[in-house]
Design goal:
Elements lengths: L1 H12 L4 H7 L3 E16 L6 E14 H5 L4 E12 L3 H4 L14 E13 L4 E8 L23 H4 L13 E10 L2 E9 L19 E9 L4 E10 L4 E6 L5 E3 L3 E10 L8 E11 L6 E12 L9 E11 L1 H9 L7 E13 L2 E11 L10 E11 L1
Antiparallel strand pairs: 1-2, 1-18, 2-3, 3-4, 4-5, 5-6, 6-7, 7-8, 8-9, 9-12, 10-11, 12-13, 13-14, 14-15, 15-16, 16-17, 17-18
Length: about 375
C-alpha cells in the first residue's frame, strides 16, 4: 500500500498536471499486503521457540463522486486476517514486542467508513467502523518500528472494556477534521466497546459501555510537526483494586492526555533525511497497569546511499506503571518497577513487491519486575505488497 502513495507523490513532484494525476487514480483503488514475522526470544526468560505470525491487509478506497455522483464523498473498506504465534507469551513484557500479534486469530472487518467533505475549506466528517490510531496519537517517523507502543501509547491502548477501537478490533465512530490555517483540529466520538465483524458478537450497536471521546490539535506540515490530544470515557470503568463499603468495585474515571512532536534534522532537499520524534502520554492510573509512558526515536532514509529504499530506525519506549499494578505485583512476590525497551530495525525493498526487515529489541525489567532478567527479542519481517 505504501508504494502507491510514493508513486503518486513522485509524479506530482515531477510536475505532472493535477488533472492527469487524478486520472491515474481509479474510482476503486484496491491494495493488499501480507506480513510474515518470525520472532524469537534470544536471551532472558522464556523459551527459545521461533514463532511465526501472519498479517494480511486488504483495502478498497472508493471515490463515490465518480461511482454514484456523491460529490466530495469517499469510502474505505479494510479487511485483515491475523494468524500465528504470540511471541510476547515468551518475552513476558507489559507492552508487547510485535505490532501484528493478536490475542485471538481470525478474519475481521477492520474499517468500513464513509467520509464527506464539509464546505470547501478542507473540513470533513468520517463515520463508520474506524481505527482511532489511523489518525489520533500517530506520527510517520515512528511507523517503521515494530513494538506496539510506537503505534499508540500503552496508557491508552490498555483502556476500554476490551481495548479501544484500534488494531485488531474497531468500533463505530464519528470523526470531524477541521483545518485551521497551517494547523488542524480533529475530534472523535467512538463506541467504548471495540467489536467488529469477525469478533464474537459482531459489530456492537448497543453503546451500553458508553463512548470514548478524543480530540487533538496540531500541525501536520513543515519541518517541525506535532499535536496534543486529550481523551476520556463517558462511563467510568471499575477500579482494578479499590472497592466500596458493600464490596463492589469502585468506578474511577478513565482519561488521559498525550503529546507528539517530530522534526526533520537535515536541510530540505538533502539526499538523506533524518527525522527525530518524541511522544508522551499520561492516564488515570486506577484501571490499567500504566500511569503513563513515552517513546522517542530517529528514522533515517535512505540508510545506505547505494540502497535508495533502505531505512533504519532506533527507538526507545518506557512505561510508567501504576501504583495498583505495583501493589499487585508485590503481593505476588515480585519487585515492581517500570519497563524500558530499546529497538533497532532496518528495512529495505528487495523487489518492487517484497521488503525485508530485521529487528532486535532489548527489554529492561520485562513485565515491570526489577528482578526479571533483561531480555532480547529478534524479529525478521517479510512484507509482500500487491
Amino acid at each position: 500500500m505504501r508504494w502507491r502513495a510514493l508513486a503518486c507523490g513522485a509524479a506530482l513532484a515531477l510536475g505532472a498536471p493535477v488533472a492527469r494525476a487524478e486520472e491515474q487514480v481509479p474510482a476503486v483503488d484496491l491494495a493488499g499486503e501480507v506480513i510474515v514475522d518470525l520472532a524469537r526470544v534470544i536471551s532472558g526468560n522464556g523459551d527459545r521457540k521461533v514463532r511465526a505470525l501472519t498479517n494480511v491487509n486488504l483495502t478498497a478506497d472508493l471515490d463515490l463522486a465518480r461511482l454514484v455522483g456523491l460529490d466530495g464523498t469517499r469510502a474505505h473498506v479494510y479487511v485483515l486476517d491475523n494468524r500465528g504465534g504470540r511471541p510476547n507469551d515468551a518475552a513476558g513484557t507489559l507492552q508487547g514486542v510485535d505490532n501484528v500479534e493478536v490475542p485471538y486469530a481470525g478474519l475481521r472487518l477492520f474499517e468500513a467508513w464513509v467520509e464527506r467533505d464539509i464546505g470547501s475549506g478542507g473540513a470533513s466528517m468520517r463515520m463508520g467502523l474506524y481505527d482511532v490510531n489511523s489518525e489520533f496519537y500517530a506520527n510517520d517517523a515512528a511507523g517503521l518500528l515494530i513494538a506496539p507502543p510506537f503505534g499508540i501509547g500503552s496508557e491508552l491502548a490498555a483502556t476500554g472494556p476490551n481495548g479501544p477501537s484500534i488494531f485488531p478490533s474497531s468500533a463505530l465512530a464519528a470523526r470531524l477534521y477541521v483545518p485551521v490555517g497551517a494547523a488542524f483540529v480533529r475530534l472523535g466520538v467512538i463506541n467504548a466497546r471495540a467489536s467488529t465483524l469477525g469478533d464474537r458478537g459482531g459489530v456492537d450497536f448497543s453503546f451500553r459501555d458508553g463512548l470514548l471521546l478524543i480530540g487533538e490539535a496540531g500541525r501536520s506540515e513543515g519541518r517541525l510537526r506535532g499535536n496534543v490530544g486529550v481523551w476520556r470515557y463517558t462511563r467510568n470503568p471499575e477500579d482494578s483494586v479499590e472497592t466500596g463499603p458493600d464490596g463492589s468495585p469502585l468506578r474511577k474515571p478513565s482519561q488521559g492526555a498525550y503529546a507528539v512532536v517530530e522534526g526533520d534534522l537535515m536541510p530540505e532537499g538533502a539526499e538523506r533525511q533524518v527525522t527525530a520524534f518524541l511522544r508522551a502520554g499520561l492516564s488515570d492510573p486506577h484501571v490499567t497497569p500504566f500511569h503513563g509512558g513515552f517513546q522517542a526515536g530517529v528514522l533515517m532514509a535512505p540508510a545506505l546511499a547505494s540502497r535508495p529504499d533502505s531505512q533504519v530506525s532506533l527507538g526507545m519506549h518506557h512505561a510508567w506503571t501504576s501504583n495498583h499494578f505495583r501493589d499487585a505485583l508485590r503481593a505476588e512476590g515480585g519487585n515492581p518497577g517500570n519497563e524500558t525497551v530499546v529497538e533497532l530495525t532496518y528495512a529495505d525493498q528487495i523487489t518492487p513487491w517484497l521488503a525485508l526487515q530485521p529487528d532486535v529489541q532489548w527489554i529492561h525489567q520485562p513485565g515491570g519486575d526489577r528482578d526479571a532478567p533483561d531480555g532480547v527479542v529478534g524479529i525478521v519481517r517479510l512484507t509482500l505488497s500487491f
